[in-house]
Protein: Secreted protein
Amino acid sequence: MTDLALQLAALEEDKVTPGLLGFTVVAVLAAATWLLLRSMNKQIRRVNFEEAPIQRDLPVQRTSASDETPDAATPDPENPADAADNRKTQDNGAK
Structure:
């Protein structure tokens, strides 16, 4: 029995534990995480989010073929935004 007690005593001296410092660091991190989550929940509850209704674009009905407005499918060469869409398509399908 004495040999077993000596082996256990020798084992305990070589054992490395985090001790009080390790416990303190883990406790502080846990408390900080809890406080951050609590604060985040308060902020999220204050958000007043209302989703905007979906507006669907209705097609425009034309009364005559000689309207003053240009057709939307025809690009305007003077408009830089429309001119950018006239770029050639690469082989992979990208512009």
